[in-house]
C-alpha cells in the first residue's frame, strides 16, 4: 500500500493521544458500579468509527452492554472483512500494585519496549489492539486505498463472557455476513519474532460456595467437632489435581485432542528460554502437568485454576472464628473438542460428589466458551502471513495460545467463516494484571500491518 | 447472704440498662479504627468500679490498650479475690448476618432464653459476664456484706491475645497478690445444668502468605504452567489433616495429655444430644478426629482450623487471573502440656517444608497461650460449687472447655494462684458470631451466685 509509513509518521502523536483518551474511560464490565463509564465508552467507539470513514454506525442494544456496529460497503462483489474487538476491560485491582493509576495512561520505556509503552488498564486488552483497526481503517479510507468491504463489531462484555453476543450474532446473520473475521486480542512471541495465533483454549468459569454451620462459630467451643467450610473447601480443591497435576474430574480428559510427536516437535521450535521465563516472573521453578513442557502446559493442555478464594475473617489482626461459608472462583481452560458446557456439568457433578456430608455445596456456572483451531492453509491465514512478512521482514510463526476468546467458535458456527487472530501484544504486557501496557512499536506496527492484510486477502480471494 | 434476691429484683432494670450502655461502645481491639471507642470503654469501666465501691481505681497504661485496676481491701488478714475480665470485643462482621446492629443492644426472647436475652457484640463475651462481678461487688459493699478483699483487673486486649497483660502482671506481682482468681468468660451446659469449667485449651494463631509469580497473571496465558498460589495454599492446608482428621504436623501430638478411660467415662456423663447439636447448627453431620466423641473433639483434643482465607479476585463477576499471593489465618487449639510457642515453631517448620519450590512461604505468628486445668478439690472450686448449689439447686458439673483464656496459665505462673472459671453463658449464645447474646436469667443468676462464692471462699479459707 502507498505511503502507509509516512501516514503513520505524520499522525503518530494523534494516534497515541486518541488511544490515551479512550483508555481514560474505566469501562469495567464486571463491576456494575461502572455502568455509566462502560456506556460512555460505547459512545466514544461509535464516534471513532464514524471518523474512520464507516458509513453507518449504530449502537446496538442488548440485554447487557451494547455492541457498536459500523460498516463500509464499497462493492457487493468484493470480499468482506468483519473486525471484532471489545471496549470493556478487566477490573484493575489490586490497585496498590499499579505504579500509576490504571485509568490515567502514561507512556514509559521498558526493557522490551525501548520506544515506550502505554500503561493503562485495557492498553493491550483490548482497547489498544482494537483501536489499531480503527486507525488502519482511517488510513485506507482517507487515502482511497480500501480494497474491500469492512464491518466492525465492537462489544462491551468480552471480559464477563460475552453473554449477549451470541443472541446478537444469531439475530443478525445477514448484517454480519463476511468472508473472514479479523481479531486482534492475542499476542505475538516477541517484537522481532512475529507470530499468529492458530489455536485458543476454551473456558469454563464457575463459582463454588461451601456452607457448614448456619452461623459463624467460636473456633474454641466448636473447633475440631464441626466441619470448617474453609478447611473442607481447601481439601476439595486440593483433590482436583493428583500428584502429577492431572485434573481428577472423571471424564475431564475424554475429548482432549492429543497432539502428534510431529506437532509437538513443531511447537518446540518456537524460541523459548525457561530461565528468562522464570526470571520474568521471579519464580524459582515452574509447575504443572507431568510429561509436558511449559509451552505445552499453557496452550495444548487443559487446566484448572482458582482465580479467587475467600471466607472467614480477612481483616486486620486475629479472629478465632469458624466461618459459616467459604467461596472460590474456579476456571478451567479447555482445549479444542472439550465442550465447555459438558465440562461445567462434569465439574459440578464431581465437586458435589466429593463434599463431606457435614457441608452443603453450591456450584454456580459463570460463563464459558469453546476452544478453537484455525488452519494455516486458509486464504485468511496466508494473507495475514504475507502482511507480517512485509512489515516485520519475517514470516510469522503459527502459535497455539493458552487464552480464550469464546466467541471465535461461535462465529464459525453462526457465520460460517474463519477467524484470523492478528495479535500484536506481548505476554509480558501484563494484561489482566497491574501495570498492563502496550508497546508504542506494537500499536503502530499493527496499524501498518492491518491494511496489508486487507490488500492480500482481497487479492487472494479473486 | 441476706436479701440478695430482693436487691436484684429492685435493681434489675438498672442492672440491665447499665450493661446496655456499656454494650453500645464498639470496643473492637482488633481494628485500630476503633481505638478511641476502646479507650472510652476503659473510662466507663473505671467509673463503674468506683460506683461499685472500689477504693482506688486507676487506668493503667500499657504499650497497647490500658488495664483498668480497682480494689477494696477491708482486712489484710482476710483472703483476697482477684477478678479478671476484659472490656474489648471481637469484630462484629459479617455485619449483614446480624438481625439487629451489633452495637445497638436489644432484649429479645429466644427458645433457650424465655425471659429474654440481650443481643449485642460483647453481651456475653465478656462485657456481660464481667459486669456481673461489678454488680455483685456493688451489692456486697452497699449492704456491708463484703466478706474479704477484692481486686479487679479488667483488660482491653483479650480478643487480640492479651499482648501486654503478661508484662503488667510480672511488674505488679505485689499489687495483684491474691488467694484465688475469679473469671467469668466461659459457659455452662444449660440454664438448668450448671457447670464449672475445669480445663481450657491453649492457642497458637498464625498467618500464612504464599507468593508465586511477582504479579497477578492472565490465567489463560500462564494457567497450567505456573504454580497458582491459591491452588498451592489449598493443597498445603489440606495436607495438614490426614484421612482420620489427625493433624499431620510432625511432633504435634507429642505432649498431648491422653485421658484415662475413667476420665473419658466421667466426661461422657455430661448431658449431650447429638441430634439437638446438629439441629442447632443446621448440619447433617458432625466432623472431626476419628476415635473421639464430639465433646472430646472440642475439649480434650487439639485442633487446627482456618479462620480466614483470601486471594485473587473476590469481587462481583469473574476475573481470569492467577493471583501473585494467597493468604490464610490459621489457629490451633492446644490441650494442657502442649507448649504454644513450641507448636508455633513446629507448624512454621512443617508449613515451610511442604511448600513446592515454585512458591515462597511466610508464616507470621499472631499470638498464643497455654492450656490449663484446675483441680476440683481446691478451696476455690469447692466454694464455687457450693455457691451454684445454693442458687441453682444443683451441684455444678466439672467440664473441660474448648476455648482458650491464655492468661489463666500466666496467672498461675506469675501470681502462684489458681483460677476459678465461673461462666454463666451458653454455647448457643453465639459469642464471636453474629447475633451474640446473653440471657437475662444468666446475667442476674451470675450476680446472685458470685457473692456466695466470696462468702464460702472466705469461710473455707479459715
UniProtKB/TrEMBL annotation, chains A, B:
Name of a matching Pfam family: Peptidase_M20
Broad enzyme group: hydrolase
CDD domains: M20_dipept_like (cd05680)
Domain named Peptidase M20 dimerisation: residues: 199-357
Entries under InterPro entries matching the protein: Cyt/Met_Dipeptidase (IPR051458), Peptidase_M20 (IPR002933), Peptidase_M20_dimer (IPR011650)
PANTHER family: BETA-ALA-HIS DIPEPTIDASE, SUCCINYL-DIAMINOPIMELATE DESUCCINYLASE
Protein name, UniProt field: Dipeptidase
Native organism: Flavivirga aquimarina
Amino acid at each position: 500500500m502507498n505511503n502507509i509509513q509516512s501516514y503513520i509518521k505524520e499522525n503518530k502523536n494523534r494516534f497515541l493521544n486518541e488511544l490515551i483518551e479512550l483508555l481514560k474511560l474505566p469501562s469495567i464490565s464486571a463491576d456494575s458500579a461502572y455502568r455509566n463509564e462502560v456506556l460512555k465508552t460505547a459512545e466514544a467507539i461509535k464516534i471513532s468509527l464514524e471518523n474512520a470513514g464507516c458509513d453507518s454506525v449504530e449502537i446496538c442494544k442488548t440485554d447487557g452492554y451494547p455492541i457498536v456496529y459500523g460498516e463500509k460497503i464499497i462493492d457487493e462483489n468484493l470480499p468482506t472483512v468483519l473486525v471484532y474487538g471489545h471496549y470493556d476491560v478487566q477490573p484493575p485491582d489490586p490497585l496498590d500494585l499499579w505504579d500509576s493509576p490504571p485509568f490515567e495512561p502514561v507512556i514509559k520505556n521498558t526493557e522490551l519496549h525501548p520506544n515506550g509503552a502505554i500503561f493503562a488498564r485495557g492498553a493491550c486488552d483490548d482497547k489498544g489492539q482494537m483501536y489499531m483497526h480503527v486507525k488502519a481503517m482511517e488510513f485506507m479510507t482517507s487515502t482511497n486505498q480500501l480494497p474491500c468491504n469492512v464491518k466492525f463489531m465492537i462489544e462491551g462484555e468480552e471480559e464477563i463472557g460475552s453473554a449477549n453476543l451470541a443472541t446478537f450474532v444469531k439475530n443478525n446473520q445477514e448484517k454480519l455476513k463476511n468472508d473472514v473475521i479479523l481479531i486482534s486480542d492475542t499476542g505475538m512471541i516477541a517484537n522481532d519474532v512475529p507470530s499468529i495465533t492458530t489455536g485458543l483454549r476454551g473456558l469454563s468459569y464457575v463459582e463454588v460456595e461451601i456452607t457448614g454451620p448456619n452461623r459463624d462459630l467460636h473456633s474454641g467451643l466448636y473447633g475440631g467437632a464441626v466441619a470448617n467450610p474453609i478447611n473442607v473447601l481447601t481439601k476439595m480443591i486440593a483433590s482436583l489435581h493428583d500428584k502429577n497435576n492431572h485434573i481428577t474430574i472423571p471424564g475431564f480428559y475424554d475429548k482432549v485432542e492429543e497432539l502428534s510427536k510431529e506437532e509437538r516437535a513443531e511447537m518446540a521450535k518456537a524460541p523459548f528460554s525457561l530461565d528468562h521465563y522464570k526470571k520474568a516472573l521471579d519464580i524459582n521453578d515452574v509447575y504443572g502437568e507431568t510429561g509436558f513442557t511449559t509451552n505445552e502446559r499453557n496452550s495444548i493442555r487443559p487446566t484448572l485454576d482458582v482465580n479467587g478464594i475467600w471466607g472467614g475473617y480477612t481483616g486486620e489482626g486475629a479472629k478465632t472464628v469458624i466461618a459459616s461459608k467459604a467461596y472460590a472462583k474456579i476456571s478451567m481452560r479447555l482445549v479444542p473438542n472439550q465442550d465447555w458446557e459438558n465440562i461445567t456439568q462434569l465439574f459440578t457433578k464431581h465437586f458435589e460428589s466429593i463434599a463431606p456430608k457435614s457441608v452443603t455445596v453450591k456450584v454456580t456456572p459463570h460463563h464459558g466458551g469453546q476452544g478453537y483451531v484455525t488452519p494455516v492453509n486458509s486464504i485468511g491465514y496466508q494473507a495475514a502471513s504475507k502482511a507480517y512478512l512485509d512489515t516485520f521482514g519475517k514470516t510469522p510463526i503459527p502459535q497455539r495460545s493458552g487464552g480464550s476468546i469464546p466467541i471465535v467458535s461461535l462465529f464459525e458456527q453462526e457465520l460460517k467463516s474463519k477467524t484470523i487472530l492478528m495479535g500484536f501484544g506481548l505476554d509480558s504486557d501484563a494484561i489482566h494484571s497491574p501495570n498492563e501496557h502496550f508497546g508504542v512499536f506494537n500499536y503502530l506496527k499493527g496499524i501498518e500491518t492491518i491494511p496489508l492484510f486487507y490488500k492480500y486477502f482481497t487479492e487472494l480471494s479473486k
